[in-house]
Amino acid sequence: MKITRQQEKAIKQLFTAKGWPQRIAALTIVAAAAFTWWQQDQVKPGQMVKGGQIIGKVINVADGDTITLQDAEHKQYKLRLAYIDAPESAMPFGPESKQHLNQLVGGKQVEARVDDVDAYGRGVARILREGKDINLAQVDGGYAWHYSQYAKKGQDQGQFARYQQAQQSAKKEKEGLWRAPSPMPPWDWRRQNKIP
Fold first, then answer.
1. Is there a catalytic annotation at residue 80?
2. How far is Cα 106 from Cα 60, in angstroms, rounded to an integer?
3. What distances in angstroms separate CA 105 from CA 23, 79, 131, 144, 153, one per listed residue?
4. Which portions of the chain are predicted below pLDDT 50?
5. 8, 80, 173, 175: which one is catalytic?
């Protein structure tokens, strides 16, 4: 929380003022600032937070690593699948990646475990359907890369190893995008096409 000059002055006055009226005025300013700060940190219904969990129905699959989930209260959440990066829609295997994810979760109940919230306000989540790790299934089927440079920061070692193994297996078996002689990772494609 950033403290304003008025709040800083009020805090000093709270401890240095000689009269009660000045101390009460200072205490009022400090209390109002504390309440505002506390309210900013409270989770509001429908708000995504790191460590949160959402259960609902997948109502849209935007691409191979982005879905929209609707909970029981009809609140919608745009979620990016954590630790993976799928081909963009305009890339080779982009439509196939989307179709594969749609077959796995489209119109189905899932559990989303929010690991982070990105700069676009999307939850970055691990998606589970009947206990199955859907993010891992995208990598295992050859429809996404394990986004290892980001996964190193938040994925536990056991999960990281499973995702790496799934990618190596898909590559060896020439599953999905690995059928191409040298598939371009989406992060390189975005950089080449100046897409954030």
1. yes
2. 7
3. 59, 13, 12, 15, 26
4. 39-45
5. 80
pLDDT the model gives residue 18: 73
Catalytic residue among 23, 113, 122, 191: 122
Paired tokens of 33: 């600032």
- Catalytic residue check, 126: no
The H-or-E segment that residue 37 falls in is: helix 20-41
Q: Report the distance separating Cα 27 and Cα 84, nearest Å.
A: 50
> Which of 5, 88, 173, 190 is an active site residue?
88
pLDDT in tens, 82-136: 999 999 999 999 999 999 999 999 999 999 999 998 887 789 999 999 999 999 9
Looking at residue 28, its pLDDT comes to: 72
- How do 132-133 and 76-81 pair as beta strands? unpaired
